[in-house]
Amino acid sequence: MRGEQYLRKPVQYAFVYNKGNSWANNLLVMKALSNGLMSSRYGFSVGRRVGKAVVRNRVKRLLREILRATTLRPGWDIIFIARSSTAGVKYAELEKAVKDLLSRAGLLVESYENVSLRSD
RNA sequence: CAAGUAAACCGGGUGGCCGCCCCGGACUCCGGGGAGGAAAGUCCGAGCUCCACCGGGCAGGGUGCUGGGUAACGCCCAGGAGGGGUGACUCUAUGGAAAGUGCCACAGAAACAUACCGCCCCGCGUCAGCGAGGUAAGGGUGAAAUGGUGGGGUAAGAGCCCACCAGCGACUGGGUGACCGGUCGGCUGGGUAAACCCCAUCCGGAGCAAGGCCAAAUAGAGGGACAUAAGGAUGCCCGGCCUGUCCCCGGGUUGGCCGCUUGACCCUGACGGAAACGUCAGGGCUAGAUAGAUGGCCAUCGUCCUUCCGGUGAUGGAAGGAUACAGAACUCGGCUUACAGGUUUACUUGGCCU
RNA sequence: CGGGGUGUGGCGCAGCCUGGUCAGCGCGCAUGGUUUGGGACCAUGAGGUCGGAGGUUCAAAUCCUCUCACCCCGA
């Protein structure tokens, strides 16, 4: 994976792990830290508890596809950590989980006018 | 037709839209390529790289019927022997127990050197029985008890003698060999080596985070071992050989490039071979990432299952569901394990028809 | 890539090296006793394919081979 939008180095991961704020739901844990750059970068952490190599690759591909279709607020380093319940989850469920975490952290830029915050 | 045995193979297709990695052209758009039969487990064997190098011995470990194949193997092919199956076929760490040591629980007299109940003879005694001896056929125990069955023989018995069978040895015929067959002989006392062991044979260590180059950064005037030495192939020893070296502590970096995919490679054909396999000729290039590419969403067609409808049946239609195991990380050769569903070939047994 | 360990009733463990007499211990569970009742205590009892498959042996939790799952190290 090339390009500026990915976190690639172990030191970068360790920095976000230690210093970042975290949000979580039943599928994912998200850690985010301000990086002072003009763009945001993200990375994934899918541990061995999630499953075998096929399952882990599947989760990472789904996450990459979801983040590719999502516009992020610039200036943040974000790590998504997959919990063991992500094994075998559908695309739509995982997308919902990612959007949930990003909107709670205020990092999501809504790209459609008709989507608005719910009011109760 | 049913049941089964063995072997080989496939393991989704097509088309859109949006993406990822590599290579080539071009200069931000084209063209080409992009997971597996197991890529898995890491159980063996090699290539490759470094440890400067060579030889010998001990220890340690692997393998273990025979012949062949192979770069090599604990793999493969063929054969022998012994089990299993009516059969096709299949399974086997399948050398040695007359080199030595150990172990064989419980039961039983006795598990390696023996005699409990018995049987027989002799002596003593009125009897009951007692004493000395012979015997291992019968009983009993056990997983296993000193070849088996039958006959002769005897006081009772015993390979004591005979026939057949099993085993052992010698001679001999066949086979490269494991072994197989024949003749003769004296008649012959367990098991365990996946217990130690003996014999034969093989094995140096580490691993692509090997190893090399470039860039960046830092602090070594630190401590120790050494000359009748120390160190060097990394369990120990010896002989040669090489060298001012080796160890500890402290400090810096955690970037990039090479290795990195042309190889005991793949396909086709011919020839040799019983086969594994080999030789030759022609053609082909078939992933190369590094937080780690090969994906996401659809449409449609396959295949299978269930339900419903029509039908004598072959089978047709509709709806729903399922579509496995699993993801390259230096590269090969094997082994093992996982796997929805399906295809083909050969053979065996049984039933029915002609 | 390399190395090591564990798996035995519901839970935690022993037994394995040296095969048999052996599947045992503690907690827990059930029943009964004791108590006005409960706890504690006492007695009795149930409960285990020894992770799985195959082999060696007369005999395997134990020996051997293959395999599954989990855990821990080192580079």
CATH architecture: 2-Layer Sandwich
CATH class: Alpha Beta
Give, in order, the helices and strands: HEEEHEH
Read across the widest sheet, the strand sequence of neighbours is 1-2-4-3
Helix content: 25-40%
Please compute the radius of gyration using only Cα atoms.
14 Å
Q: What is the end-to-end distance?
A: 42 Å
CATH topology term: Ribosomal Protein S5, domain 2
Overall shape: it is: globular
Taking pLDDT < 50 over at least 5 consecutive residues as the criterion, the unreliable ranges are 111-120
The major sheet is characterized as:
4 strands, mixed
* pLDDT averaged residue by residue: 81
* Count of discrete structural domains: 1
Summarize it:
By secondary structure, the chain is of the alpha+beta class. Helices cover 34% and strands 20% of the residues.
Characterization of the model:
The chain has a single domain, classed as Ribosomal Protein S5, domain 2. The chain is globular, with a radius of gyration of 14 Å. It is built from three helices and four strands; from the N terminus they run αβββαβα. It has 120 residues and is an alpha+beta fold. The protein has a four-stranded mixed β-sheet, with helices on both faces. It binds two RNA strands through α1, β3 and α2.
